[in-house]
Write a structure and sequence with these properties.
The complex is a heterodimer of chains A (298) and B (221).
Chain A: E1 2-11, E2 14-24, E3 29-33, H1 40-47, E4 55-60, E5 63-64, H2 74-79, H3 81-88, H4 94-103, H5 113-123, H6 130-136, E6 137-140, H7 152-162, H8 168-181, H9 197-209, E7 215-219, H10 227-241, E8 246-250, H11 254-260, E9 263-268, E10 271-276, H12 278-283, H13 288-297
Parallel strand pairs in A: 3-8, 3-9, 6-7, 7-8
Antiparallel strand pairs in A: 1-2, 1-4, 4-5, 9-10
Helix pairs in contact in A: 7-8, 7-9, 8-9, 9-10
Chain B: H1 6-9, H2 12-45, H3 49-64, H4 67-82, H5 88-113, H6 117-125, H7 130-160, H8 172-183, H9 187-215
Helix pairs in contact in B: 2-3, 2-5, 2-8, 3-5, 4-5, 5-7, 6-7, 7-9, 8-9
The chains are: A alpha/beta (298), B mainly alpha (221).
Amino acid sequence: MIDIRNLYKNFGVLPVLRGVSLTVNDGEIVSIIGPSGSGKSTLLRSINLLEPPTYGEIWVDGKIITPPDPYLHFEVIRASRTYRHMQREGWDDDAALIREIKARDLLKNHEGQKYHTLLKEITQHSFVDANVVREKIGMVFQHFNLFPHMTVLQNMIYAPTHVKKIPMDQAVEKARALLDNVGMLDKIDVYPGTLSGGQKQRVAIARTLCMDPEAVLFDEPTSALDPEMVKEVLDVIKRLATTGITMILVTHEMGFAREVSDRICFLDEGTVLEDAPPDIFFSTPKSERARTFLEKVL
Amino acid sequence: MRLDFSIIWGYLPMFGSALLVTLKVTFCSLFFALLLSIPLSLCKISNIRPLLWFADFYTSVFRGVPILVQVFMTYFGIPIATGVKMTAFTAGVVVFSMNSAAYISESMRGGIRAIDRGQYEAAMALGVRYPAMMKDIILPQAVKSVLPSLVNEFIGLLKNTTLIASIGLVDILRVGQLIQAATYRAFEPFFVISVFYYVLVMVLSWFGKALEKRVNKSDRH
Ligand SMILES: Nc1ncnc2c1ncn2[C@@H]1O[C@H](COP(=O)(O)OP(=O)(O)OP(=O)(O)O)[C@@H](O)[C@H]1O
Ligand SMILES: [Mg+2]
């Protein structure tokens, strides 16, 4: 399960994500849609920590993968000097006090040993390293990002053999099976430079699956493709969707999103405006923004 | 004045061992230069400020001081200051490899910078750790793109090794000087030396081109 709690991301002074909360259960397929620049890629890339979040927490399978966010833990706020200081100054409504500390971002400068110890206590037992998460959550990119100096097979087996330390013969066997699945077995020994966009993306998907991920993130997997190649890639993803793997997709292919998703998550200016099953979202969007967006793209 | 190349014959064995010295200095220096350029270029792309400053300072020193001065400094100066004695061969290899490492790491920096962010992201998304990512994914591609300038650096290095003649190591150039001193002839020995270097450089360039072709086979469409 992937649990995103109140995620904020700023690039310098530019706020891109502004309090996103989203839970994706095992085996669920969630599509994130929204206008360009709304933060879809940033959200997706936060999940495997390619973009470290500014505030908020991400939990994967009950383990926190981001540094703990003090604002999400009342006991930490209450233990802070700022809290006691404000209490002395006459703030008697506890809830209002905490809201004020959050709003003014008063814990930003750390509060010494105690604060850190507490945060550690809360999360220590479950904290994991970014690479452990990345082994569990695969990612497929818009521009494929195959390694150009390695053959298709080398691309496939590199991470399994080097990161997971799977024996070479097993990795090769798995790679062959996966390549066969995406119809690319005949290209096993060529370099990516010789492949078409659709073929590259199919190899990239297979490469991600070689790591046996529990979940796969797709960031506009068909946006860089010529129109005639979109279908072959969507078909591969559709088939993958039936295997029970968890998927989070950022896509502009509305028909496809509607067909494969369990839920649609509409992102606008860094906040989740809608989170609903596809039939409900596409027929009766709640927000004005989603309505205008759908009018434009459908 | 009549040219007489027959005077060279007697010195051929000397040329032979001198050529060996030149090649030994060149290849040893190249080896250590490549070795040293890896951590240097990693410093140059690191976001740890002191590492960056160190690498930039290092490069500016080797760029800023004439290489003959570096040779004298290492061979004559440093032993006096530190008491560490060095043979002319060691001094030469130390200077040339540190020097080349400065230049190679500079082009490596460019080569690494030119690599698409997507390559890092794909590697990270697969859970590949930084050292393995650099070693297997980023540096191979960077080396490939800087190979032409590596070959140039190698050629420059070969030519720079003539400077060790000035600290008494008998390389090809030094043999020429010895012939000149013994026979009062300058054209013949230095002509032969020019040919030596020219042929060596041509061989290296050819070898470099062949290597480039080989590593670029993955780009063929
Ligand atoms: N590394 C970065 N540095 C600075 N700004 C960034 C960075 N990455 C993204 N942004 C900015 O953040 C905003 C959201 O970007 P993001 O890529 O998440 O949007 P998106 O919803 O994926 O858009 P698109 O549909 O065009 O892909 C944009 O304004 C973008 O310019
Ligand atoms: Mg995007």
